[in-house]
Amino acid sequence: QVQLVESGGGSVQSGGSLRLHCVVSGNTYTSYSMGWFRQAPGKEREEVAHICNLGTRIVADSVKGRFTVSQDNARNTLYLQMNDLKPEDTAMYYCALRSGCYYGPLRPTDFQYWGQGTQVTVSS
Q1: Residue 81, Cα to own-chain centre: how many angstroms?
Q2: Which DSSP state fits 76?
């Protein structure tokens, strides 16, 4: 059973930084993608970034240049480094995993496993 546990969210002022973590257990796929999604109140869940364990990375245009996705396979951990945060980045951030690698944007329905989320709040 795949389990994902996020941490690292919090409250920061505009221009600040946070680093989200997602620890994965029970993953036995040899090829898989892990992603970060976010959902603000009243809005649809949207992809922030995803990474394939074989090396491909996709970052949404809305956060490109500010957010970086990475993974540490030895620690079974996915990271999202968020710099120059803006109030519009305020949302619940979710970690997700699916089998296989894809080379374009992905939708929430493309992912099979989800964490419980971690809240990020950015004040102006």
Answers
A1: 9
A2: T
- The Cα–Cα gap between 99 and 111 comes to 8
Convert the pLDDT of each residue in 1-39 to its tens digit.
999 999 999 999 999 999 999 999 999 999 999 999 999
CA 112/CA 85 separation, integer angstroms: 28
Q: Which two tokens stand for residue 76?
A: 């079974």
Q: What region, left, alpha or beta, does residue 21 occupy, with left being phi > 0 and alpha being psi -120 to 50 degrees?
A: beta
Which string of DSSP letters, residue by residue, matches 17-32?
Answer: -EEEEEEEES---SSE
Contact call for residues 22 and 34 (beta carbons, < 8 A): yes
Share of the chain above pLDDT 90, in %: 90
* Cβ atoms of 51 and 57 closer than 8 Å: yes
Strands (E), the chain: 3-7, 10-13, 18-25, 32-39, 46-52, 57-59, 67-72, 77-82, 91-99, 113-114, 118-123
Upper half-sphere CA count for residue 82 (Cβ side, 13 Å): 33
